Amino acid sequence: MSNENQEKKAAAVDEKAKPVKKGKIPRHAMPEQDPRRRRYNFQEVPKGYPADVAIEEAKRCLKCKKPGCVEGCPVNINIPGFISLIAEGKFVEALVKLKEQTALPAVCGRVCPQESQCEARCILGKKGEPVAIGRLERFAADTVRKAGAEPPPKMEPKTGKRVAVIGAGPAGITVAGDLARWGHEVVMFEALHLPGGVLMYGIPEFRLPKEIVQYEVRNLMKMGVTIHTDYVIGKTETIDQLLNGGFDAVFIGTGAGLPMFLRIPGENAIGVYSANEFLTRANLMKAFQFPHYGTTPIQPKVAITIGGGNVAMDSARTALRLGAKSIIVYRRSREEMPARAEEVHHAEQEGVEFNLLTAPVRVVVDENNRATGLECQKMELGEPDASGRRRPVPVPGSEFVIPADTLIISIGNSPNPLVPQTSPEINLNKHGTIIVDENTMATSKQGVYAAGDIVSGAATVISAMGQAKKAAGSIHRYLMGTEPPGCDKPVEDLSKACEVK
Questions:
Q1: What is the structure's pLDDT at 345?
Q2: What is the number of H-type helices and E-type strands within the chain?
Q3: For the chain, what percent of residues have pLDDT higher than 90?
Q4: Domain boundary, last residue among 411, 439, 473
Q5: Could you report the per-residue pLDDT of 454-487, keeping only the tens digit for each?
Q6: For residue 33, what are the domain limits?
């Protein structure tokens, strides 16, 4: 063998022995249930990283000096910090680092659109795949929760101030947790029979197990937060009554729970549901476990879901699991769908059919006003509209009917109007959302603050939490005249400046 060949072989061996550069390590896939099996059950689809895989994925992080991922996070989690701790096998410390900024890491790791937020700013994503930030966030939270190893939060001395939190969804949970840590007495009022808001009624078990939400609710109660369920503010009591009854401040986090409809003929037929009702019955009321749970089941044979967002994917995948042939009708193309790519992919894997560039025209009904189908019209894309997406334009003469016994309307939600309607001093905009000072989240009524979908309209869990952190800091400042513990910046930066430990 020539010296030249020997040198080449030696060089090849040396190359294999060299450690792989972080940027060269491929992103680790997360194990999932087989779609052929999971379409028949409500168990969670992704199974999470094992510890060894999480450590290897964490080692991909470049620990940038100016981490764009942090800037892309609405609550400014110290992402390189918690990922570095996972890489070192310090899982409890990683969760503590996460909880400096987020109250719901196990939730956000599952349902937040990391691909358009933190992971979109990861430098590894410029030439390859970004670090799996959401999966690592979920891993840290799940591992510590299952081990029962989460340390109790540091609690500040009692201030003697009382705060009412209306709505026990993501925004309310965030505000309650921060204010309780800072020493205030917090009382939550939830209209439904279980706290959690959209996390309980809107997101299916196969995407977000309800035990995770209730675990965080129990943590709030351990911190001294009182939670009243089946308590409708605006009916049982008004905001004025709360303020006159011993509360020093009020936070409104009632969300966007008023469903929108299509306003097409036949929409009031039997068998037509809003996505809110359909998902609430399946998720919060567990109708899929009838008769173990007494909620009347919905048992569709052919279900059409109208819409292209995450809620539409949740509805269509739930209908599939209830035994239906499940179809999505969406008036734009795949590229314009607002749903997360992962959710669309999972729906396709499970067998949901997609009728794209298709718009509903009317609900076909029988003599008993029961839905028997949906008349649709084919569309083509025209010029972009105000959203930046190409506007769908009807194709003349392209009408056709899809037979179905169940229709699920999933085209968005409006703010819950009940609380603002009973508090006329709170100013609203033309869309019915509460007008707030963007720096403080204060409403036009003194001592009353708001955040989440009731302010922004239907948005993401993490954006609601970002607003809520800002509101919590402002409420503390209003009550005490000082910055909250752990905050070293002016109130307008509270969502990014406070490290609540």
A1: 96
A2: 19, 15
A3: 83
A4: 411
A5: 999 988 999 999 999 999 999 999 999 999 987 6
A6: 14-147
Residues 20 and 139 occupy one common structural domain = yes
Helix (H, G, I), strand (E, B) or coil at 431: coil
Give 371's strand partners. Answer: 365
70 and 182 housed in the same domain: no
Residue with tokens 């999933």: 410
Q: Are residues 273 and 407 in the same domain?
A: yes
Compute the distance between CA of residue 89 and CA of residue 140 in angstroms, rounded to an integer. 10
Identity of residue 425: E
Last residue of a domain, one of 380, 411, 442: 411
Report the CATH number at residue 73. 1.10.1060.10
Would 306 be classed as within a structural domain? yes
Across 89-98, average pLDDT: 97
Residue 358 and residue 327: Cα distance in Å, rounded? 12
- What letter represents residue 280's amino acid? T
Q: What is the mean pLDDT of residues 284-292?
A: 83
Give the model's confidence band at 57: pLDDT under 50 very low, under 70 low, under 90 confident, else very high: very high
Residues 6+ apart with CB under 8 A from 494: 469, 470, 472, 473, 474, 484, 487
End-to-end CA distance of the chain: 65
Predicted model pTM: 0.89
Give the DSSP H or E segment for 476.
helix 461-480
* pLDDT mean over 228-246: 96
Q: Identify whether the C-beta of residue 164 lies closer than 8 Å to the C-beta of residue 250.
A: yes
Distance (Å) of CA 491 to CA 154, 178, 330, 438: 22, 15, 42, 11
- The rounded distance, in Å, linking the Cα atoms of 140 and 251 is 30
